[in-house]
Each structure stands twice: as C-alpha cells, then as structure tokens.
Batch of 2 targets.
Target 1
Amino acid sequence: MKNQSIGVFRNYRLGAGLLLALGVVACTEKATTPPTTAPPTTPVAPVVNEEAKNYADYTNLVWSDEFNGSSLDQTKWGYDLGGNGWGNNELQNYTNSNDNSFVNGGNLTIQARRQQSGSNAYTSARLLTKGKQTFVYGRIDTRAKIPKGKGVWPAIWMLGADIDQNNWPKCGEIDIMELRGSRPKELLPTMHFADGAGARRLKGTTNTVAVDLSEDYHIYSVVRSKDQIRMFLDGQLYYTFGTADTAGASYPFNNPFFMILNVAVGGDFDGNPDASTVFPQQMQVDYVRYYQYK
C-alpha cells in the first residue's frame, strides 16, 4: 500500500507539472500574439458641390473674368487657330488677331468678319480655357449679347479636359448656348457623348423664347451636379440632362471640363451666309463667372 501511494503521488506530481507547463505555453502564446482588429473604415468624402442645389444657392465666386482690362488675360484664355472646317464645313479661319477678338469697355468682343484668309472667306476667333482653368461642379454664368444673321453661329460651350486622351465625343461636350443666326429666338442646348462603340450620341432641345436674343445681353448658365446638368436663361431653367438620358452609354459629365467662346460662320448648322447677312458680326461678353455653394 505504501509503494502504491508513492506511485499515485508521483503520477499526481507528473500530471500537475504537465498541466502547469501547458498553462505556461498557453499564457506565453496569449502574451506574444497581438489581438486582431478590423481596419478602420475611411468615410468617403463627397466631392465639393456634387449635390444639386437651387440656382440661387451658388453664391461663392470661385473664378471669373470680368474683361475689365485693355487686353485678353492670357493666363485665363488661349486661342484655337485654323480654318479646316472644324468638322462642320465651317467657312471661317480662327485667328488671334485683334481684328477678331479684343477687350474694350469692360467687354470681350469676338468678331466674325468677311475677310479673306488663305482659302477661307471669313475670319473669327475661338477662345478657350483649356490648360488654364477647368470646371467640375458648380454654376457657370456667361453674360453675353450674341449676333444673328443667316450662317452666323455663336456658341458658349464646354469640352472634357481629357480630350487629348479621350477623343471627342468620348470626352463629352456641353453646349450651353448655340444659336442659328437665322433664328435668333431659338436657343439650343445640346449634350454630346459616346456610346459603347465610341460613336457620337447627342440629346438636346430647341427652346423658343419670346425675344430676339441678339437684341440685348442675357445670362446663359449651366449648373453641374453629380449625374445632372441644368441649363438656365436669365435664371430660368430651360433644360435638364442626367445619366438616364444617355440610354446606357457613357456619362463623362462628372469630369473636369473647359470653357469655349466662339462665333463660327457657315457650315452644317445654319448653312452659309447669304445676301441678307451683314458683317462684321459680334458676340460681346460682359463676364464669365464660376460659382459654388458654401
């Protein structure tokens, strides 16, 4: 009996030692293995001004040109040059001459002239902010007095800033104001974009107004929000475009765009000038202003 007790005691000591050793190992593992925690979720900050708000809510002036100097501010504007028809069989040669664009009396004047320039019978100007200023969400106002006459084609519009990487129409085009000079009471906003195969798609409207738009200054506005674009004439909404209007095609209009101001002559839009068309014809721009809400 005595020897048996010793054996039991030894077995007990052996078992207790084994349990102690396992406990030490377990404690060591717990001490050296750091607890795992899920990485913190980074909230997605909304893009500035992506939410659509009322026209009057855009009160924070971010960028503007008031055209108060004696010459064009070339830190803000550059020139498109040439007379290659511009894809529309247009007749003018765009120049950087003071005959075709100048700043005076608080206005930018873009002037189309009947003037031979190489093989082109007319000259004019096309100014743009490409490489100098781009715009995303917010409201752009252009206060302008536009010309008229058969074959005269004034435009206030925008192109996607990635046009050098994504050729037109993939980059997108926003026509804020186009006017057929022979129909000075018709205002045409149009959106150009590409389908899945890269072919041009467009959607717009013809807005007939009560007055001849060439007789006075008007404010032509675009308000860009995420997935939505709205056009206004003197603060009154006249066109809305959104993602559903692309019918499943790409929607490039959440990207940065640059501004363009020009007066074309002739081509596919209103035909060529006739005997009734008087030259020179001028688009006078009082200001271009870019607002966001606070």
Note: The chain has a mean pLDDT of 90.
Target 2
Amino acid sequence: MNQAYFETLSKDYFGNLYQKVCSALTKGENVCISVIPGFGEKTIFNFLNFNFKNDKLFNEIYIYDPELENESIIDYTKKLESHKTSKTKLLIIRFFEQIEKKRETLEKLDNIRRKNPKSLTYLAVSNQEAFLNPSSHQALTTVFFSELIYFSPFDFAHTEKMVESLASYYGWKIEPSSYKEIYNLSGGIPRIIKYLTKELYESRIPLANKDKLTLIPQIGFQLRLMTRILITYDQKQIQLMGLIDEKYRLKSGLLKYFLKNFRSDMISNLYPQLGDTETKILSFFSEKESKIVTLDNLAHLMKMSDDDFSLWAIYKLISRLKVKVKNNFNIKNLKGRGYILSKSVNQ
C-alpha cells in the first residue's frame, strides 16, 4: 500500500515542531498552532496526527472539524467526557478560526476539562489571527493555550528540503539549480513552492515567466489570498508574519509581481476607463469595503509592489476617484483616521 505524503516526512521535517508540540501535550498543556491558509495546514494536521498515533502518545485521539460536524464543539466535548475513564484523550480542533465566540467557548472547554484535567488535552489549529491577536484565542478567565506556535514561511534551507521531498515522492525531476529561484518566487510559502515545483517538471514553464506562473490556478488562488492578507493587516503585522524583510520588501517575488498588477475583476469591469493606479487603489478599497483604509496602508501596499507614490500623490488620486466612482461607490474621508468605501445609496 502506498504511503501518503505526510507519512514519508521525518519527525524533524518541520524543525522542532513535533518535539515542541509533544512536549507540551504530554504534560497536559493545551497547544494552538497558527497557520496562514496555504502554509500547509492539512499536511501539518495529518503529519502530527499520524505521528501521535505511531508513538502512542494518547490512548484515544478525536478530531473536531467545524466544517463537518453538526454539533457544537461544546456538545461534542461533553460527550467525550460523559464516561469517566483513566484513558488519556487528545482532542484536535481543526479550523479553530471558524468557531464563534472563541473566548466564551474556550472558557467552557476549560470547565469541562477541569473535572478530569489529566484525561483530556486540546490541540487547536487556527489561522494567522491566533498569532496576531493571541488574546482572542484565550479563555475569559484563564490562559487556555500554554503554547501558541506560529508557522512561519520557510527559509531557503527548508524550501530546498520541501522541493526534494516533493520530487522524491511524486517522481518529479528538478534541477538543484532551480531551488534558489523557487525560493525567491515563493518567498517560502508552501503552496506556491509545491505548484512551482510541479509545473516546472510537468509543464516546463520557465520560472522567469511570471505571467504564466500567476495563471496556474493553485498559485493564483494563493496569491489572491495573500493579497487580501496584505490589504487587511498593517505593516507591522505583515512583518511579524514573516512576509516582508527588514526593509519592508516582500519576500515572494511572485506575490510582489501579482500585487503590482493587482486588479479587482469587479472594478475593472465597472470602470474600464480608469488608469492602472486608479484601478489598483480602488481595488484595494473594494477588498476592505466598509472598513477603514489609511493613507499609510495604501502607501505601504504601493511600496511593497515597488510603486513610488508619496502620501500626497495618493491623497490627490483618491480625491479624483471620489468623483469618478460616485454613481456606484462613496469614498468617505474620516478625518485623522483614513477612508472608508461603501456602496452608493442610489446604486
């Protein structure tokens, strides 16, 4: 029987992740892993679950997936603990970002566990919000997660390791001379690494052809997702996530190229007559509809894509945009705070 990809990975494939998670869980400490979508959440989950079972760290392992379960995490956990037993149980909660009222939910999960604290331990997998806003992933009256582990973009050495493991598993023949370019284009983002490697072998698309690379569905999907993240968070948070270097430059050459040419299909269709920069700025606004966008936010986005615009130039551009888009959108200036885009009342 063929092995799944995650079964072929050594325990140190993700550095000290497995050792660190095991050390905390086996001491009865709850753990939260924070992973940006597309950074290998599925592989990490399968890798950990597979090795937990192989190493027999717990008598029983349960998986709660809010996308699949009909009952709440509270009801699900109560059922697990309804029968008193000396067996050790691990409950893995996937896509924790989808759980509503997180702090209240964690408070209740902690109360359930208190009845038999040595019996039940929690491992949650969440998106980047757990790392950027850790207080939102703790209970109301206690520190629920003793360990919060953020999964950063890969460095070059780990990118090289991933390319070689993929090539070995799938039978892709990749020249080592391509590794550095794969890293420079991907910025260490696992999903982009995987599909650059795949297409390089199967389609022979030159890595220098960024136009074609961005059209690969899986890569395009991840680039759009990453662009929304860049638009949503401020510069400090983007740097904390490891997406930009100390000079605030994007690590992913492909993401930088995509951001520079970013256009919302809706905006392009509504306003084909707008200039490239106007279309891009309005596209940024549309991604944060009804939310405040500051001039600094826009300036940072322009800088990350190597567009040289002053705050004054952006301010004047927005002033012109207000008039051009007023039939569909209202761009309101909130003095001292920024701008907010909303649909026009007469739309």
Note: The mean pLDDT is 92.
